[in-house]
Design brief:
globular; mainly alpha; 84% helix
Amino acid sequence: MVGWTGLSKVIGQVATFGTTILLVRMLDKDDFGLFAMALLYTWVIDNITDFGFQSAIIQRKDIDEDSLSSCFWFLSVVSLAIVALNQLVAPWIAGIFAEERLTGIVRQISWIFLIIPLTVISSGILSWRLRLDVIAKAELGTGLLRCATSIALALAGMGVLSLLYGYLLERALLAFVLTYAARWKPRPRFVYQSVKPLITFGLNITAGRLLWLGYSKMDTFVVGRFLGVEILGVYSVASQIAMAFSQFVSAAYYRVIFPVLSKSQHSPHFNEILLKSSVYLSIVALPVMVGMAVVAPDIVLVFLGDKWRDAIPALQVLSIVAATLTLSGLLPQAMNAIGRADISIWINITSLVVFGVGFYFGAQWQGISGILIVWIVLAPLRYVASVYTACLVLEMPVTEYLKQHRGSFMATVIMLAVVMIAAEITGDWPAESRLFLCVVIGASVYAALSILITRQPCLELLAMLKTPTRDTA
């Protein structure tokens, strides 16, 4: 299950990265800026329309047909109302960003909300059955089709529409493929008492997600609103590359862990499962993201080209930020699994206020540099707060949490120092050669250190990845 999910996400992320590299050479910076603005709005509405029902379905011990059908019809009514509303408010959304071209994009992208009920229910059913391999295969296929479609449309001179139509095609096909795979269809029946418990739980999940989205995407809003569409285009491309591995983790690892934690929420081994999951995550994620920050200048010059040179500082900082977001992102999954979504809500409320104020004044003070300063200062503080709060709720000593992660942290710091030295020594080399050497040295050093420092967790992780997929339905 984990192996197939991880493999499909690796292939998908490689394809997405390659597609991004091709598209940045064919499209203008403001094309990416416009699409980032539209996606920001879409993400917000997506989480509202979802109502947290997918997580609510996964978290329940049992789920009946009345509940599933009632959820579907409830979400269908909400989705239809939101699509109609979007056609009216699109000019207002465009006015917020002072970008008239955004009106048509928002109106077109909003039609995708009509298929959200299918995606939510079918994904929830498959995840509840732990058929995560099916979801992974569907996402891989539709994701590859999106990449091919966007490239073809970009070659045809479609500009920002190549990004938009590729996205719409992927979302629509995914909904129908997952619905077919789940072998489920809605019944013409709505029972409020069946859907009421899911609404109660789902609203907490939705509130937590919206608050998280607010703080984590506030930088995109502030950059687009106050610094302009072209600067946002540069920033969004840097963010896509920096967050690529983080998105892979959230789509693959979190998807596996949340159902596992939910089914283990009453087990005395819950804390042990969470700790091991977090250690596995840090072993894999930290070296990739921290290493990317070191070689960011060469990544930009080799893959994006010289015209994207101003994306280097953002890529360096956001790679470090991505590491803290990835590690801290596992803890809300644990809180949701035990039914304490309120913990995430309060952390995200605080983050929304603090980060929002910070980004606003940072942009006014130093432009894009101010945004990056706020990230590098506040993201680690949020990670510390998340760890402390989760340990308090789970009655787990903070020292035990830190002790378990000590090995991966040490190996990453040593690897970082070695790669920085290698980059300095080869400073006059061509960017391609320097990047290749630094990656090889970094990977070799980290692998050797992992064998010495974190041997047992590494062996357990490899064994888990080799575990064959099983249908536990």
